[in-house]
C-alpha cells in the first residue's frame, strides 16, 4: 500500500468538490460580489419564510387573522424571487444599490404594516420588533442618509397605520392602546436610527480610507518602479527584470536580448537648447519606445540619457529590427516646439543571452557593443560578440 491518504482522498473527491463549486457558482453567481449579494437576498428570503411560518402559527392560535399568513406568503416569496433573479442576472451591478436593499426595505415596511393590521389587539406590539430588524439589516449596505431615511420612513408608516386603523375601527384598534404603542415606537426608534446612522458613517469612513490607502499604495508602487521624468521603468525595476530573465534562461532555456541605448550628442542638445528641451528629448524617446516596442518588451531609463531594453524570446536579428522601427519612428517625431527641427537619434549595443552567464556579463557585452556603435559613427546598432568569442 502506497501514497498519501490525504492526497488519495482529495483526488477521489475532486469531481464532487468541482460539482459543488459549479452548482454554487450557478446558484449564487460567477463572481464574488454577485455571490455576496445573492446570499444576502437568500438570507432575507429565509427570514421572511420564518416570519410567514410564525404568522401561520399565530393564526392557528387566534393571535392573527386567518387570511393574513396566506397574503404575506403569496406576496413576499414571489417578490424575493424577483429580487434574486435581478441581482443574479447582473442587471443591478451598475446601480448605486446593486443588492436592491432599499426596495427590499420598503417592501419589508409594507409587509410589517400589513401584519400589524392583522394581529390581535393584545399582541400587536410584537410586530414593532421587526422594525428594528429592518433598520439593523440595512446598516451594512446603506449610506448614513439612507439609514436615517429608512428609520424615519418606518416610524411614519407605522404611525400612519396606527392612526388610520384607530379612526376606521376604534373598537378593534383602541386609540389609547395605539397611542401607547406609538409612544414606545417614537421613544425607541430614534436610538435604533442613530445607531444605524453612526455605524453606516463608520463603515463609509473605513471604506473611504481603504480606497485612499489603496490608491496611495498604488502610487507608491508606481513611484518605486517608474522614472518620474519619462514614465519608463527605472533602473531598480530593470535590474530585477534582468535577474528574472537570467533565471528563466537557466531553468527553461528561454533566451532574451538586451539592448543598451545612448542618445547621440545629448550634451549638445542641453548646451544648445537648454535642459528643458533635453528633458523633452528624453520624453520623446520614451513615448516612441512605448509605442513601437512589443507589449512583452521592457524598456527602462538606465541612467541619464541611457536606456535599456529587454526583449524576451528575441534573436539579435529581431532586436535589430525593433531598433530600426524605433529609429524610424523617432525620425518623424518632433521633440520640442522651441526646436522644431530637432530629432532624437541614438546608438545601441545588442547582446543576446543564449549561454550560461550572469547579469553583469550580458550588460558588459551590451556596453562594449554600444561603445563600438559610437566609434563607428553613432546613430547605428552594433551586435555584441557571442559569449566565449
Automatic annotation (TrEMBL):
Q: Which residues form a coiled coil?
A: none
Q: Name one Pfam family in it.
A: GGDEF
What is this protein's name?
Answer: diguanylate cyclase
Q: Which residues form the GGDEF domain?
A: 254-386
The record lists the organism as Aquabacterium olei
Catalyzed reaction equations: 2 GTP = 3',3'-c-di-GMP + 2 diphosphate
Q: Name the CDD domains for this protein.
A: GGDEF (cd01949)
Q: What is its EC number?
A: 2.7.7.65
Keyword field:
Membrane, Transmembrane, Transmembrane helix
